[in-house]
Amino acid sequence: MRYLNSVYIRDYKARVGYRRGSLVVTGMEGKQRIGIEAIDAVIMFAGQITTDALAQLVRRRVRIAALTRGGRIRFIVSGPTSGNVHLRQAQHRAADDVGTTLQITRNIVAAKLQNSRRVIARWGRDYPQPAIREDLRTRSEQLGGRVTEIANADSAHMLRGIEGDAGRLHFGAVRKVLSFEELQFTTRNRRPPRDPVNALLGMCYALLVTEATGAAETVGLDPQIGFFHRARSGRASLSLDLVEEFRPLVDRFVVGIVRRKQIGVADFTFTAGGACYLTDSGRDRLLKLWEKHKDTEFQHDVLGRPVSRWALPTVQATLMARHLRGDLPGYPPFLLRR
After folding, report:
1. Where are the beta strands (DSSP E) in the chain?
2. Could you read off the pLDDT of 21-61 as tens digits, one per residue?
3. What domains can be seen in the chain, in order of their start residue?
4. How far is CA 85 from CA 22, 63, 224, 225, 265, in A?
5. What pTM does this model have?
């Protein structure tokens, strides 16, 4: 099925081929042709893809990602390595420099905490129950205090400690704001997710990481060489760095669709081992809501204008590249204004 510029394949019998400028998706629902020029990503939860289709997508730099039903990324394929090799050299030098890495990490963590604080403050203003409204207000203020501690953090270890403490405050707020909903939340868990809210969070985080990986490669950065997330074999560390400042937006999106009852218990299935996954119809519903969310506009301070959510990972990857090239004195992260 196609929603906007992303093609999602979830039919286990689906076969994705290529013919005369179009992807041809054949499955249980019949055959569908999709003009390849209108696609920016193919996300596969199941099915097969031909080498011809894969080659045509890669040639046009269309991102292909395969995810498990729980949202874990199996692989991401994109076009050939692009960009100036000197940019990647600068990225590797910066990752090896303790001072540069610390400064970039400070900016990333500060933006994540600021965005979390603003999301929680918004929940607090809108929440009808006075006791929970006050709890959310307190948590927002406490997060503001954690932000002020970042400037004095002189090591990555200290920053991770501040970020971890802020995470407990943040997910405590998620628990509070969903206290009276059909889908409730207790604590963050994954691999596998144990409840519907964690299943939603895991799926959306994974979709965002595929966007960040494509954005990094588009501007010529190495997705595996990060700063806050240190290099680890098989991990897209820079992609995870770029995602950090957007995680509160994902959490706001998930809380919103739960509170608006746009997704419910019937959209999930539980395994004998206690894992919780979206059903096929539930995943279909989530992807439609996700694509609609990607059209939401946010004010961007550096650009001085609104930017659609789908473009934000590329904007931030570009700003990271400009900093590493020496065009900007520091990495300017995305800050939520509303």
Report:
1. 2-3, 6-9, 15-19, 22-27, 30-35, 41-44, 48-49, 63-67, 73-77, 268-270, 276-278, 297-300, 305-308
2. 888 888 877 888 888 888 878 888 888 999 999 898 888 88
3. 2-67 (3.100.10.20), 85-325 (1.20.120.920)
4. 33, 21, 15, 14, 49
5. 0.86
